[in-house]
Amino acid sequence: MISSTTEKETAAAKAMELLEEEVAAGSLSDAADIHYLTKDNARFHKTEGKMLAVTVGEETHPVVYVHCSFPHTNKPMYLSVRTVENKEIGMIHSLEDFPEETAQLLEEQLQIRYFTPEISKVVTVKEEFGYSYWEAETTAGLCRFTVRSGGGNAKLVTPVRLLVTDVDGNRFVIPDMNKLTDKEYRMVELCM
Amino acid sequence: MNLNFSLAEQDRSAAVQAVGTEIEYCVPANLSLLGYRAAGYLVVGQHKWAYIENGEAKESGVIADSWEYKVIPLIGNVVLETEDEQGKRVLVRSTMEHAARFGYIAQVLNDKSAARKIRIFNNEEEAACVKCGGRLVAGTRVCPRCMSKAAAFKKLFGVSKLHWKALATGLIVMIAASVIALAGPYFQEILINGALQPPDGQSPSMKLFYIALAAMIGGLVIGELLSIVRARVMANVSSNIAADLRRMVYEKAQSLSLGFMTSQRAGDIMNRVTADTDRIRQLIQELCTTAIYQLIMLIAASALLFSADWRLACIVLLPAPIVAYMNMYIWKRVLWKLFHKQWRIYDRANSFLHDVLSGIRVVKAFGKEAREIKRFRTYNSEFAAATIKSETVFNVLAPITNYLIQLGQYFVLLLGCNMILNNQMNVGELIKFTMYASMVFGPIAWMMFMPRWVANALISIDRVFSVIDEQPEVLEAEKAVRHTIRGEVSFRGVYFGYKSYEPVLKDVSFTIREGEMIGLVGHSGSGKSTLINLVSRFYDVNEGQITIDGVDIRDIQQDDMRSRIGVVLQETFLFTGTILDNIRYSKPDATQEEVIRAARVANAHSFIINLPDGYDTLLEENGNNISGGERQRLAIARAILNDPPLLILDEATSALDIETESVIQEALQRVMKGRTTIAIAHRLSTLRNADRLVVLEKGKIAEIGSHAELVEKKGIYYKLITAQRQMSKKEQKEELAG
Predict the structure, then answer these.
(1) Listing from the earlier edge strand, what are the strands of the sheet with B700-705?
(2) Could you read off the pLDDT of B607-659 as tens digits, one per residue?
(3) Nearest C-alpha of chain B: how many angstroms from A5?
(4) CA-CA distance, B544 to B426, in Å (whole number)?
(5) DSSP string, B508-524
(6) Contact present, B57 and B17 (Cβ < 8 Å)
(7) A24 to each of A20, A30, B15, B207, how far by Cα in Å?
């Protein structure tokens, strides 16, 4: 008799735990409260001052900025639309969810915010006195820049993607280290 | 900082047309909105601005038509935004290279737009190389392209001069050692030619044999002894020079302003004091022992070779550089890279290990042991593979390179034997010759590597001297006076910014009376801490002045002034040492009674006396063996030991729980009596005893008055205090409900 009561109690306790877990699991997404902007609930447009504005429901936000959650690994997804006061208006699940015109507009804003020319060819990297002097062909043209050695100024953000930050704070990226020629690889490797 | 770039003729005429004849500011805006680099400039005239690109004014406007010019830092670029009647708009875009310039320009445009006096203090120096005109990297003083190696060495020799006697001794010993080493083959020749195989017509002489043998043994022994002496002398000299450098860097670091010290990470300075000076020590040691010795040997052995037989000498010496170069090439291009890769993998594995082992609680808490084992296995096998590869290559290449180096000797043997057979040479001469030849290869091979380590050492020399040559920002006035502070502090039209285009304090004017307690109130970033940094003169004001008892603080001797100001910060720092030493820090000659008195005033005495070792308790690093409240009380005791007439409390009790805070508040009340006190506190209730409160808002004084006056005014202070009260009420309610 005693044992059956204990069993019942244990079962009840387990059920409670499960219930609590369910509640906890349910509450996480509630707590996160992601408000997704879609083509149905948000309208983006460019202002005369070349800035991005968005109308959500009745409210129009005259200036918003688009931030990337994963600028290196998944640029067009999980974008956050924020005001200059850093208040989030909402998130965009994927640029693909929007008509091409809007997607292009948002893409343009991303390009403005994240200015990171891609290095297509490393011409020279010369290391001297704790700094390396780079000359590289990039998507923004031929660039010469100086990188402080060490301190994570050239770091792999994914196993193949190298992010290089110069002394001013300009960023350059080598999208795929494996695509470099042997000579380029050797020059770049010494700075990592 | 250059804020007025000169324009090409075409651009200039377009600019003049757009903004008028007087171009006041002109900065590059080198990035288009579409992301390509542009040769554009933002030009500011008296009333108008314009964006000039390729000899054409692409855009222009009247400055006063817009307001709120602002630099928005984006990722890897900045944009200059403004607002006009139609809303916000982007003016221009630039790479990070010119970001600071736009900071200044935004300030200029705002001042112009509001018809104010332009307040930029353009004293941020634009580091440019005097020689090549190229931009210098921020934080360095020498242009890496133009830095002459001679200049760096000259600096080093300047420091080494003090030790010239020891250096000269080392040099003499070295020359003696090389003479003895070079005499070896000569005696060998005597030994062979005199005793073992005398030339035709001469009989072997045992006497000569013994003399030669004794000379060779003696030379060996004396040579070894001299090398011991040489090593000792040079170790001494190089360590002493490194010690001098360490002392210079450390002393300089102490005298530099807080601005410099916070801009350089503490670890970086520590590196310069320890690692870089050590690298310089190695350089001196290497230079004065190996390098000079190798050089002497190379020159002397080559001279002897040529005097012995110039044809054979040519055979030995001509291929030597080629062989040595090949050797270096193999090392540099193949082996070094392999080892470099191996080290990198090793480093990665190491930091992974460090990471996971120090976070082992987290690993266990999430039950991820299996995953971590798998990850380590990957690193481990990667490292093993890299090691195997580099070791295999090394073991193949090392014998080959050694063989290459000695190749010349085989040629000598070949030709020498022929010459002996033709009676052009005897055995003794050949042996002497090959011994000299073997002395040449070592130095040549060694010198091939010299540029690499000299370059490395030069970096260290540069880093060390960049601190030593740094000029302190806060300078002692020439006629600085000692001034016994009474405690009246006055701010008169003070403007200040860590970067002068971003003023943190604007037009701050007020006077703190002697013995008055002032509470500084405001949101974070409103300039409270900056204000007290200025009172301590960690920085100098950009405009206006701060006076203490009517004397400008820039005219008061810095040490003297700071020793009369007691400071208690939120983050207390206690040094390793006893409690007694720590309290005594502000006045090293304080008596034990004075220390106890200070501790009693700070409510610290009772906890100290309960410790088994009392005031002799040894504190661990940063006082980690006592509680936060206890540390704070020691900090207060330390601040008041010197009986300072001016007391600064920067969030002195914010990090403590309410109970501890009340104990410390009580102590502070006693301490503050009769002293001028400036206190910052997050919890406004802490400041209820202040005579007056100064409310700062965005760097300006928004309100000033007593608690009652400010509450009555119902301004910012009132809002802050009601918000805090509501918060604590809510907390209380929740606690009661819970």
Answers:
(1) B565-569, B646-650, B676-680, B517-521, B692-697, B700-705
(2) 999 999 999 999 887 788 888 888 888 998 998 888 889 988 888 777 677 77
(3) 31
(4) 91
(5) EEEEEPTT-EEEEE--T
(6) yes
(7) 6, 10, 64, 103
State the pLDDT confidence band at A3, using cuts at 50, 70 and 90.
Answer: very low
Alpha-helical segments (H) within B256-291: 258-263, 266-271, 277-286
Are B700 and B491 spatial neighbours (Cβ–Cβ below 8 Å)?
no
pLDDT, tens digit, 9 for 90 and up, residues B162-197: 888 888 888 898 889 888 888 888 888 888 887 777
Looking at the DSSP assignment, which residues form a beta bridge with residue A127? A132
Angle, helices B292-308 vs B164-191, to 10°: value is 30
The closest of B29, B11, B5 to B98, measured between CA atoms, is B29
Q: Which of B335, B284, B643, B694 is nearest to B521 (CA)?
A: B694
Percent of chain A at pLDDT above 70? 83
| B184, two tokens | 């070896």
Find, in chain A, the residue whose alpha carbon is nearest to that of B73: A113
CB-based contacts of A21, cutoff 8 Å, min separation 6: none
Amino acid occupying residue B78: V
User: Which residue type is seen at B568?
Assistant: V
Rounded CA-CA distance B691/B506 in Å is 24
Give the type of residue at B155.
K
Its sign, for the CA torsion B13, B19, B24, B29, is: negative
Interface list for B 328-347 with A (CB within 8 A): 337, 340-341, 344
Strands (E) across chain A are located at 42-46, 52-56, 59-68, 77-82, 88-94, 119-128, 131-138, 141-148, 154-156, 162-165, 171-174
- B462 at A interface, C-beta within 8 A: yes
The H or E element containing residue B14 is helix B9-19
Residue with tokens 């809303």: B87
In chain A, what residues touch B337 (CB-CB under 8 Å)?
186
CA dihedral B101, B105, B106, B110 (to 10 degrees): 160
pLDDT digits (tens, 9 = 90+) for B435-472: 888 788 778 777 766 766 676 677 778 777 777 777 66
Let me know how many helices (H) and strands (E) chain A has, helices first.
3, 11
- pLDDT reported for residue B44: 93
The H or E element containing residue B25 is: strand B25-31
CA angle, B621 as apex, B620 and B626 as ends, to 5°? 50
CA quadruple B131, B132, B136, B137: dihedral sign: negative
pLDDT at A22: 47
DSSP state of B645: S
Q: Residue A176 is encoded by which pair of tokens?
A: 């795929």
pLDDT over 70 (residue B134):
no
HSE at residue B210, side-chain half, CA atoms within 13 A, is 3
Structural tokens at position B734: 């929740």
**B76 with A116: Cβ contact below 8 A:** yes
Contact, B189 vs B431, CB < 8 A? yes
pLDDT digit string, tens, across residues B521-545:
988 888 888 898 899 888 888 888 9
Which of A110, A115, A132 is the best mutation test for B, with the most CBs of B within 10 A? Answer: A115
Nearest partner of B140 among B124, B129, B155, B156, judged by Cα: B129
Considering only CA atoms, which of A70, A154, A82, A149 is closest in space to residue A114?
A70
CB contact under 8 A, B455 and A168: no
Burial classification of residue A17, based on how many CB atoms lie within 10 Å of its CB (0-12 exposed, 13-18 middle, 19 or more buried): exposed
Spatial separation of the C-alpha atoms in residues B252 and B271, rounded to whole Å: 14
ipTM: 0.81
Indicate the residue of B89, B340, B458 with minimum beta-carbon distance to A49. B89
Label the pairing between strands A131-138 and A119-128: antiparallel
